[in-house]
Amino acid sequence: LGARFEGTIQKLAWVHDHLSQLARSGRARRSELVLVVDAYDVFLQGDASHISRAFLAETRGDPNAVLFGAERACVANVCGGTVGDAQARRPHLNAGAYLGRLGNVLDMLDGVSPRSWSPISSDQLLLSTVFANRSIGPRPRLDDDARLLINLADFATSADSNLPSSSVDGACSAACGSIETAAMPPRSCVIHGGEQLKPCVVHGNGVGG
Description:
By secondary structure, the chain is of the alpha/beta class. The protein has helices spanning 9-25, 48-58, 102-112, 123-132, 152-156, 176-179; strands at 33-37, 42-45, 66-71, 92-101, 141-142, 149-151, 190-192, 195-197, 200-203. The strands form three sheets. Strands 1-4-3-5 form a four-stranded mixed beta sheet, with helices on one face. Strands 2-9-6 form a three-stranded mixed beta sheet. It has a two-stranded antiparallel ribbon with strand order 7-8.
């Protein structure tokens, strides 16, 4: 982008600018789904159509949903509070991947005003602080069961994880039928090498993780 990096909060401002430009130019409609992910430590299992269908199933067709990854721990310096259901397995927002309709993502970013914060701040700290303390306006939904947006750091410290330590694609896979819900039947699974894999977005532990 030719911009000097100062803090991860810049990602929110840059995403807002880019999506605004797409909408103004007519290159994208506000109703189109957009997926925003970190660089280098994210991979997609399944193509756009698979992930789109999984998103619609996970959000039960909510036209206003913006879905974020979630994690168990509220880590100092990147967590400003509990965003999801406090009784859920993963009640804390993770900003490494989120998915929603372009117009809803723009409305959400307008509401958090990233440029009003210090440029060296954390994007995850801003989002969790705002949404943990505000009950009005656009709000994100958390994938607290890690069905679509998965954070490997959360699995690495979890005793009840189904993630095989030797297999990354175990995060969303192998027995696809056993982890499906009625809202997302097996036909939405990705067939790869004769194996059914659940469509998902896997967020790693960072470049050094």
